[in-house]
Specification:
By secondary structure, the protein is of the alpha+beta class. The chain has eight helices and eight strands.
């Protein structure tokens, strides 16, 4: 339909060009033959108008086919360069690296917990969750239905004071108190998880740098890894937006950043694993010396070894 309209437009333009020239010639001849008549000025006016119409339409026709076409090519080339730079370099590359989007302000923990299924693993690296009072029951329910949770939470130590000093409205003692209450809440959950539970809970309490808030979901079916990460800034982490990443779970063990196909989910997961293995090594040394180790919390009680393991054992 649009192509037919375009053809009609150009046919109309050609009619005006040649029609205007014909009108110019005819009325020009009439003006010459009837030069003594009173209305000769009208014949000359019509003749000049025909010539004017023919010339204007011809110039427009030439501009469209020659100049405007070249300008359009230059504009398309400019837009192509912009699209290549920003679409390929930003959008496509972000997708290739696993970026999905950003949450609308704070992370919806409840929605994530309700979306977990039997056999899924959750890795959680955090200082403490200031919303723990609202989420403990959801976390416990997920473990009971077969989800395996592995957590690294900050110890009550001098680093807590440094973290508190960066957050608006938090005093050091308040931060440390919430930190202790978060661990206490996890201990209560562990106490209620018995050997009949199909899931498991493993928590290491660390005293190193917090790094970033990191929430990793390794889905059993399909084999998909979802990651949410945020940043420690001036607001409490419970109020911060999270970046959302996603990738397939890979079985290979080489360092993914050495590959041209690296993505952020692999790097996040590998970082958590390194942190986890470092804490597990401390537990292993304590057990080797038959020394008590207070910085590991697990449930069920009969699954201690399993609770020290991640998905790859």
């Amino acid at each position: 339909m649009s192509s037919n309209i375009t053809i009609l437009k150009w046919l109309f333009a050609l009619v005006l060009i040649f029609g205007g020239f014909v009108v110019h010639k005819i009325f020009g001849v009439l003006a010459t033959d009837l030069s003594g008549k009173e209305y000769v000025w009208l014949l000359k006016l019509i003749s000049e108008f025909g010539l004017f119409t023919s010339v204007v339409i011809s110039v427009g026709f030439f501009h469209h086919w020659i100049i405007a076409t070249e300008e359009r090519r230059e504009t398309e080339k400019m837009f192509q360069n912009v699209l290549t730079k920003y679409i390929d370099g930003t959008v496509i590359n972000a997708t290739k690296r696993g970026f999905v989007g950003i949450t609308n302000k704070e992370l919806d923990f409840s929605e994530l917990m309700h979306g977990l299924y039997h056999g899924d693993y959750v890795y959680w690296l955090i200082t403490f969750d200031p919303r723990y009072k609202h989420h403990c029951r959801e976390l416990e329910h997920a473990i009971r239905k077969g989800v395996h949770v592995r957590m690294l939470i900050l110890k009550d130590c001098p680093i807590s004071e440094m973290c508190a000093s960066e957050i608006i409205g938090y005093e050091a003692e308040e931060f440390r108190q919430n930190n202790r209450l978060f661990l206490s809440a996890l201990e209560d959950i562990a106490g209620r998880i018995d050997n009949r539970s199909e899931g498991s809970l493993g928590v290491f309490v660390y005293d190193s740098l917090p790094s970033i808030p990191l929430f990793i979901i390794l889905r059993n079916a399909p084999k998909m890894m979802e990651i949410y990460n945020s940043f420690y800034l001036s607001e409490p982490v419970g109020r911060m937006p999270y970046l959302h990443w996603q990738a397939d779970i890979k079985t290979r063990t080489e360092y993914s950043f050495e590959s041209a196909n690296w993505n952020m989910p692999d790097l996040f997961a590998e970082y958590f694993q390194r942190r986890w293995y470092a804490e597990r090594q401390k537990l292993g040394l304590a057990e080797k010396d038959n020394a008590p180790y207070q910085d590991f919390l697990y449930a069920p009680a009969a699954a201690k070894q399993k609770c020290t393991q991640l998905t790859d054992g």
